[in-house]
Prior knowledge:
- The structure holds two protein chains of two kinds.
- By secondary structure, chain A is α+β, with helices and mostly antiparallel strands.
- Chain A has helices spanning 7-23, 26-34, 43-51, 69-82, 89-103, 106-118, 229-264, 276-304, 310-335, 347-359, 364-374, and strands at residues 123-126, 141-145, 148-159, 166-172, 183-189, 195-201, 207-217, 220-222, 266-267, 270-271.
- Chain A has three domains: 7-118, Acyl-CoA dehydrogenase/oxidase, N-terminal domain (Butyryl-Coa Dehydrogenase, subunit A, domain 1); 123-226, Beta Barrel (Butyryl-CoA Dehydrogenase, subunit A, domain 2), CATH 2.40.110; 230-374, Butyryl-CoA Dehydrogenase, subunit A, domain 3 (Up-down Bundle).
- In chain A, 51% of the residues lie in helices and 16% in strands.
- The mean pLDDT of chain A is 97.
- Chain B is an alpha+beta fold.
- Chain B folds into three domains: 3-98, Butyryl-Coa Dehydrogenase, subunit A, domain 1 (Orthogonal Bundle); 132-240, Butyryl-CoA Dehydrogenase, subunit A, domain 2 (Beta Barrel); 265-393, Butyryl-CoA Dehydrogenase, subunit A, domain 3, CATH 1.20.140.10.
- Chain B has helices at 3-22, 48-59, 78-90, 100-112, 115-126, 241-258, 269-277, 287-315, 323-346, 360-372, 382-393; strands spanning 132-135, 151-154, 158-169, 176-182, 193-199, 205-209, 219-230, 234-235, 279-280, 283-284.
- In chain B, the strands form three sheets. Chain B has a four-stranded mixed β-sheet, covered by helices on one side. Chain B has a four-stranded antiparallel β-sheet with strand order 2-3-7-6, with no helix packed on it.
- In chain B, strand 9 (279-280) and strand 10 form a beta hairpin.
- At the A-B interface, helix 7, strand 10, helix 8, helix 9 and helix 11 of A face helix 7, strand 10, helix 8, helix 9 and helix 11 of B.
Amino acid sequence: MAMVLTEDQTLLKNSAAEFCKAQSPIESMRDLRDNKDETGYSAEIWQAMVDMGWTGAIFPEELGGFGFGYQGIGLAMEETGKTLVNSPLLSHAVLSGSLIMCGGTDAQKEELIPAIITAEQLYTAAIDEGAAHDPARIAMTATKSGDGYTLSGEKKFVLDGHTAGQLIVAARTSGNAGDESGITLFLVDAKASGVTVTRTHMVDSKNMANISFDNAPATAVFGEVDRGFAPLNQALDRARVCLAAEMLGGCIEVFDVTIEYMKTRVQFDVAIGTFQALQHRAAEVFGEVEMAKSVVLEALTAIDEGSGDVPLLASLAKAKLNDIYHLVSSEGIQLHGGIGMTDECNLGFYLKRSRVASQTFGSSRYHRNRYATLKGY
Amino acid sequence: MSTETETLEEFRLEARSWIEANYPDALKAPVNPGDIPNGGSKQVFHHPDAKLWLDRMAEKRWTCPEWPKEYGGGGHNEAECKILREELAAQNCRPALAGMGRFMLGPTLLQFGSEELKAKHLPRIATGEVRWCQGYSEPNSGSDLASLQMRADDQGDHYLVNGNKLWTSDANMGDWMFCLVRTDFTSKKHAGISVLVFDRTDPAVEINPITLISGYSVFYETSIQDLKVPKADMIGAENEGWAIAKFLLTHERVMISSLGNTKSAPTSMSDVAKKYIGEDDGKLADPIVRDRIAQQEMDDEAFMLTSKRYTLMAKAGESQGAASSFLKHVGTKFAKNNMELMLDIEGHQALGWEGEGFSEGELTLARAWLRSKGYSIEGGTSEIMLNIIATRVLGLPKA
């Protein structure tokens, strides 16, 4: 039970923290936005992450990975969340990597995981089709065509959709929207005919795209036809928890910055942190952040231990972090007063990030519904 | 194996076989916390074997194993006490003795009390002969306990005590009381407090039960008029009682946590909801209630995981200064939230006061909901907990 970090984990966390603070502080994200950067992330920072072994963190040594586990990558993600580092780490290493590990054959793992680790080209997953995340509602169709399949339909808000070279696409080979069975996972080259990518410029300045498929050819099927929902959900749970870890970093950063502000901002001849009403609000938020830490640690550990409770804990972690990041980022703005509303102040970035991250891989409503279903009511 | 380890292993085996031979079969069922004896002249044992168990453990000197032998304890060191706890737990034994004497007054006397006080009171706690209660809060001193005003006037060889205490639990069951009094009215409030002990049944001490909004309670108000307390019955030095009061309070927490593994499993809100609201296609028929239950179960789990994390941190030697304040405030907040949701789920049925038309569970819930409003007040209000977190943990400036 890794509620308390091991020495190795502490080292990893500290080096990730130093890297993010020194090499990719929040100003880097601001610059990417201000310069309307085409790729939306820094190639140098991404390469540094690859060099540090982050893209190999969750994979076993037999496949060329470093075996840090999800606890390891979770610690790195938490640090990236503190400075809002733009990178394809979540979509490429965590989501796509997990999809291949959970859904692929041994041959596919041996072929593709090394490619994920070296990151010569980026992978991402195209899952959602509407405004809200709801994988069972996938309607996009995959039609048998000769030996393979062609895909037609619309995918929305694909993480890093406009920079990915390879797309793992969830489409329907049978059944109707709402059915969990009948979903299949395909590999599609982003440059294939029929694939049109339109970048969506989000409020949090991070990368998403809408992708339309018009009889686009799939190059591979992951696992069994019609049985893609289970591995899809397993991989999504891993992505949910790692995203929750990133969100935890954001919560901690906003909280720390806000407490510091309350100690230094003077109005009415005292630091505003002297006022009891604000003290109590800060203490309440403190409690919420403490609980956020606990649910993320528990979920990351459960994944690495292969626990049967992962789906429940993933929904718990995602829902709680949605709500807590929402609270902390909103309180952060309010407690900073007018300055919190300026673009010059960094707090707005966290507010924006919290709401986008909240919708990614499932809103609180989605996860409370799932949690209740898993618990039998 | 070293001699020390051998001796400990021998002790373990001795403990194990003694417990096997002496733990009464009748007590092998799960216990209600209320059935664990606190001792005293008014003790009513829920089962004769509970008295038998207490007597046997007292004779073996294992009711207070860590206390010195000359005061009725077992004189056991930490390692031996740990072994004893493990062996008792392994055979699912209920505690033989609980209460303020065992967990609060005893350690306090050992730390601060005179030889005379230790010799007089400790053995009678260990045998269960005497039960203790406390006199702390007053009508005008709750959160601001240090402002207490019960006076103890120096009359030469004794103190003359006058004043009122509030919220004494089980005063009617207590034989003796330990009480915070003011011995100096001129100094700063923390510096004029002393601790006295006296016979609670003295005619100068009048107790009256406090009825709560939930009905019957264990609380009493205590009115003291011209009680004479010999000087020898002061714990520690005059005007040095505040430190002793704080020591007592930290031990109160140990006492509360020792009851931990006797708590019953909480009711499943979703099971109750299925009964009162029904199901639609395998899901609770009211989606709003369903969502609220999920929300609260998530809150409860997040809280429980944090409590677990703090325990692990403590074991690993990492401090978490906010732990007790957080656990008190958030734990009571969530417990109250759960009560309110249960109330809402059961509708009118949860709002019966007594009599026909309600199940026992429903009547119990109504009282429990009312009683739960006190959780965020007693033992340190939530507002005090938030003050502590803000100023001592987050370092925000004091006004």
